[in-house]
């Protein structure tokens, strides 16, 4: 498989990756961050999968059912045709959301005499131990025989022995397979699965229909919004960075991390986008998550948390798995949780500010959020002059990163705006003085006269794509010559083959060899902001073509082959896609913009 041609299904509890051939190659149960049952994507020999096997005469076509997170894979050989509809149930039932830890594969008979076999090969607990598969009256049960006990149940109206023994299955009418973490209390039937399918379809259609519509790129916005929603965890309101672990940023290298956690930065950016799209409930749940994880006024804010509010995310290596395309190590947990990254404060206060100006917030939550804002101002006051690890989580030396300093200013700027909204004038003078001090420090120390641009850290000559966000966060005007020159210099140094490096200086693992997808979206937005709209739109249209067959992006792109790399699907990439699409949807290219483009 040249590209990461997977569709993702999910129900805000867990998620699974379905290959373009209809194989479930990644699924963790009962939650996003639980141990895997199917992990072929991390080891094609022992990882485990749930495959539908046909002979070579079948052509296979895969797509999402429009405006849903339900996947259709159609198998056709002449007159013989069947469709597999994969989904995880999600809908309201008696006022509560019904989203059990289960996958339903609905086999829809289309025509002729289609024949296939099933390779059902679950490997519980990241395939650490042997998994025993036994057919019983009601179900096929799979369970571990050593180590931590775990089990999973398969219900079906297909002959169970035919599944276990991989015998040919002649489909003459609709059928189903249900893979459930919990033993079912009700008798499972085809009609019951069909009802779940229809209810889930209606849920997603209603959800997508409630999004704000835009005159351009609406299809891409909806798909990306559906992905962001899928990656939000109902139980706590956390938003995941991605659904996978250890998919490498570059094949064969060691930049492999577990992204099944809630980064304050990534999640806050996702929530800001959800606010723009009008989805109040997702936003409310995330703000509750923030209130829950920061209970004490002097508690240190981590850069990331577990989706169930865990604070200790100890990193562990699974040495028995060979990794995606032999890219070891496979990691679970993430040691970056102990890092200091000063940019998270600005991102968080910015998203809190968005809530105050866009939505009605209960008095209780308003007071809790105001307490958090004041706590963050104190943290920024005590830490903004100190070096940190920066947005890119450099694991060696700490630096005075420009982006971190800018976001410290953002924290003060948004705190001042919030204080003004809620009439807490007594804070304004002191906070404004600190904001001015930080801004002056940045303008004096982050600007490099030799480069004629704002550089990665104080005293550096290297460019950093994150500095393109200085304008969108309101630190500097798009017409400011220093910002325009920074955009020009950043593109010149970091753009290659129409894609962006995060930075090009050596880091802990050497020179990055793949493009960080979000950075290309940032460049497109920056070009648009400084008046190069036509160029920005051409670059955006080209970038959209690099998505996979169902419109999804991972974290990275190979500069040469455009292969998707890194964890998948990536919330960061999709939130930036939405933001860029919204910006480019505003109006036509004006005469003034054409003149500006000619100048540049």
UniProtKB/TrEMBL annotation:
Pinpoint the GH15-like domain residues: 217-580
UniProt keyword terms in alphabetical order: Hydrolase
Would the keyword Hydrolase be found if you checked this record's keyword annotation?
yes
GO MF annotations in UniProt: hydrolase activity, hydrolyzing O-glycosyl compounds
The protein's name is Glycoside hydrolase family 15 protein
Q: Where is the Trehalase-like N-terminal domain?
A: 7-145
Its organism's taxonomic lineage begins at:
Bacteria, Pseudomonadati, Bacteroidota, Bacteroidia, Marinilabiliales
Q: Which GO terms describe its biological process?
A: carbohydrate metabolic process
């Amino acid at each position: 498989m040249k590209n990461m041609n997977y569709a993702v299904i999910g129900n805000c509890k867990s998620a699974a990756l379905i290959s373009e051939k209809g194989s479930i190659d990644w699924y963790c149960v009962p939650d996003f961050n639980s141990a895997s049952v199917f992990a072929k994507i991390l080891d094609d020999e022992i990882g485990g999968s749930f495959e539908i096997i046909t002979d070579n005469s079948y052509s296979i076509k895969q797509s999402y059912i429009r405006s849903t997170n339900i996947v259709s894979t159609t198998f056709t050989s002449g007159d013989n045709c069947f469709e597999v509809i994969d989904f995880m149930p999600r809908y309201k039932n008696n006022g509560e959301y019904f989203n059990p830890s289960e996958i339903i594969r609905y086999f829809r008979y289309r025509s002729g005499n289609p024949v296939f076999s099933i390779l059902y090969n679950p490997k519980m607990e990241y395939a650490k131990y042997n998994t025993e598969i036994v057919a019983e009256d009601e179900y096929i049960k799979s369970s571990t025989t050593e180590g931590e006990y775990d089990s999973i149940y398969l219900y079906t109206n297909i002959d169970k022995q035919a599944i276990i023994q991989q015998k040919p299955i002649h489909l003459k009418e609709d059928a189903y397979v249900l893979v459930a973490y919990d033993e079912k209390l009700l008798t499972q039937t085809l009609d019951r699965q069909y009802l779940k399918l229809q209810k889930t379809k209606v849920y997603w259609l209603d959800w997508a229909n409630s999004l704000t519509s835009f005159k351009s790129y609406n299809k891409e916005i909806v798909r990306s919004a559906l992905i962001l929603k899928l990656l939000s965890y109902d139980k706590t309101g956390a938003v995941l960075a991605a659904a996978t672990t250890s998919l490498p940023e570059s094949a064969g290298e060691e930049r492999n991390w577990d992204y099944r956690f809630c980064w304050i930065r990534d999640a806050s950016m996702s929530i800001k986008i959800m606010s723009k799209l009008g989805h109040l409930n997702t936003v409310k749940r995330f703000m509750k998550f923030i209130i829950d994880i920061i209970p004490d006024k002097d508690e240190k804010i981590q850069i990331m948390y577990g989706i169930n509010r865990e604070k200790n995310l100890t990193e562990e290596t699974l040495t028995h798995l060979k990794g995606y395309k032999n890219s070891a190590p496979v990691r679970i947990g993430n040691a970056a949780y102990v890092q200091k990254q000063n940019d998270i404060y600005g991102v968080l206060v910015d998203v809190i500010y968005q809530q105050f100006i866009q939505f009605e917030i209960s008095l209780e939550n308003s007071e809790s959020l105001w307490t958090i804002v004041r706590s963050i101002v104190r943290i920024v006051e005590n830490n903004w002059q100190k070096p940190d690890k920066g947005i890119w989580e450099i694991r060696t030396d700490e630096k005075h990163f420009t982006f971190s300093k800018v976001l410290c200013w953002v924290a003060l700027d948004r705190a001042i705006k919030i204080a003004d909204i809620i009439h807490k004038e007594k804070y304004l003078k002191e906070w404004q003085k600190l904001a001015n001090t930080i801004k002056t420090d940045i303008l004096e120390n982050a600007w490099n006269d030799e480069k004629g641009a704002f550089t990665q850290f104080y005293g550096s000559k290297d460019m950093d794509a994150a500095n393109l966000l200085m304008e969108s966060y309101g630190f500097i005007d798009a017409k400011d010559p220093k910002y325009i020159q920074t955009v020009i210099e950043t593109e010149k140094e970091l753009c290659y083959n129409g894609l962006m490096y995060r930075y090009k200086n050596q880091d802990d693992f050497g020179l990055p060899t793949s493009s960080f997808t979000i950075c290309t979206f940032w460049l497109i937005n920056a070009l648009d902001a400084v008046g190069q709209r036509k160029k920005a739109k051409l670059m955006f249209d080209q970038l959209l073509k690099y998505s996979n067959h169902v419109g999804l992006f991972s974290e990275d792109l190979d500069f040469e082959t455009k292969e998707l790399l890194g964890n998948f699907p990536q919330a960061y990439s999709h939130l930036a896609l939405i933001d860029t699409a919204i910006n480019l949807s505003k109006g036509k290219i004006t005469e003034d913009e054409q003149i500006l483009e000619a100048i540049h």
